[in-house]
Amino acid sequence: MFAGKQPTTLGVRDGRLAPCPATPNCVCSQDSDPGHSIEPLKLSSPDSAIADLKRIIQALPKTKIVEESNDYLYAQFTSKLMGYVDDVEFYVDRAANVIHVRSASRLGKSDLGVNRKRIELIRTQLA
User: Fold this and answer.
1) Is residue 3 part of a domain?
2) Which residues neighbour 8 within 8 Å (Cβ) at sequence distance 6 or greater?
3) Range of 97's domain?
4) Per-residue pLDDT for 76 more than 90?
5) Radius of gyration for the chain, computed over Cα atoms and rounded to the nearest angstrom
6) Are the C-beta atoms of residues 10 and 28 closer than 8 Å to each other?
């Protein structure tokens, strides 16, 4: 119902995920703004990181894996009630030994903390 259009700025460019927009409905581990910043995920095994993330994401409701490679995973999360879509990206940064994350709502302004909570849930399940 409120899916919006898939952003054209997704993906990794020069080792970085896209910065968050000015709205508060986005978190990114590579963003320096305190309102958008979130810690990257710990990388325990570079070789299984994407598979581990994929397993966790596929167990969550209303998710769809859109793109995956050895170091990148892009998934869409759809809300139950209104069908809002959030774009969630993971980038395995082997040099820094972390998984950078970005989770952003396509529409609206506030997400009531949903994107941050989602990443923290995934962090907990990875541990």
Assistant:
1) no
2) none
3) 26-126
4) yes
5) 13
6) no
Q: Are 2 and 84 in contact (CB under 8 A)?
A: yes
As beta bridge partners, residue 19 has none
Type of residue found at 24: P
- CATH code assigned at 33: 3.30.310.80
β-pair type (98-105, 41-42): antiparallel
pLDDT digits over 3-59, tens only? 788 889 999 999 999 999 999 999 999 999 999 999 999 998 989 999 999 999 999
Total number of domains constituting the chain: 1
* Closest of 94, 123, 127 to residue 27, by C-alpha: 123
Q: Pick from 90, 84, 15: which is nearest to 57 by CA?
A: 90
